[in-house]
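Quick illustration, no need to memorize.
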Amino acid sequence: MLVLKFGGTSVADADAIRRAAAIVGAQRGARVVVVSALAGVTDALLQIGEVACADEHAALRALDGLTARHHDVARAVRHAERRRLLSAGIDGLSRSARGAVAAIRAAGRARPTPASADRLVATGELWSSRLVAALLEDAGIASRWLDPPEIVHTDARYQAATPDLVPTARAVDKLVRPLLASDRVVVIGGFIGSAPDGSTTTLGRGGSDYSAALLGACLSADEIQIWTDVDGILTADPRVIAHARLVERLSYAEAHDLAIFGAKVLHPATIQPAAARNIPVRVLNSRRPDATGTIIGPHTDLDVDPRLTAVACRSGVTLVEVISRDTRGREFFAAKVFHVLAQGGTPVVLADLCGNRLSVAVDDSADFDGFCSGVAAFADVRLRRGLAAVCAVGRGWSAEPRLIRDALAVLGDTPVHMVARPSGSSPLALVVDEAHAESTLTRLHDGFLFEANASRPGDFPLAVNQ
């Protein structure tokens, strides 16, 4: 049993969807297909929501352009009646989106509420999944489209909803399994869920990966396949390091850490459902379906590999230094700070506790005014903005005691604001100025992966930056 997820670039137009259909048709057995919105559509819908706050007519014109794009793809369906029904479905979804735009404008707010934004942006995956289901049928692959909010149940945290696994598993048993038993390929839009009151939620950007992993876990899939526009997970972002190379095998922990620290191939939450059921996750290129790709699994033998595996960077980070006014009970102090962060919904990227000082790296989007108010009674706060967090992943590599020394030697005169050795597969994490992020990535990547004398930390030539 396979779950195949196709990203936006893999369903960008009719030709891309035909390639996806060929991939699905080449597989045998039960299959669930999860799709993202067509490339660029999610960003366009979010922008339409912003525009709608001030200019409803401009927002509707942009929405009409997106509707026309989906109709262009629908014209590739050869079967006349199927094409007619598909076009009617596209128009129906467009009318619902127009209603969402009108509601955003009527609310009179400077920005859409998270709930109204979710209602609008979900249109992308609803459009794309209907297109994929129709083109699969057109290719002779028996398929059935399912409405994602009927399957994935979540809490009411709009734009970053958390799935509720019990009702989701129940819906999978009721709606998905019978179709698979009748030899139908099930097609579902990713990213979308429903709150307890039935309103539309989304799982956050990149959430279609998460949808695929949830469905794979509920179905005890043999494999979850993530089809994208690259050959797999690379040792670094190829837009930054052109000579980055393919990583053929990653552990669950390594893949999770790379995603947390900014690797774009996977949503960070994808790994947990797969790891809980020990389901392999394979990342593949829809334009090169015969390529090896990257396989993510337990891979305990990777612990003995002494080399760096990959590097990743998370930009848009602020370093928050919290200084307790009471030097006693530092653990209690740290617990209070993390409680305030959790109350504000602020995820922590990195943290380091030294004496009465807690340094926490968080995203720039955090509510810093609210945080400062929350800790004002017991601590002082300093903020350092315009930073990036860089991580180096490699579980066997982490055992080297001279790792930090050698890494700092590689970076030379690059200012480093924080150094941490988190638990898990990331033996090294650094916070640097955003302006130095790319050079930091390159120096770590090339120094510990490609230098002939640097296959292990401790062997690195200290003159490498000259």
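Residues 452-466 have pLDDT under 50 and may be disordered.
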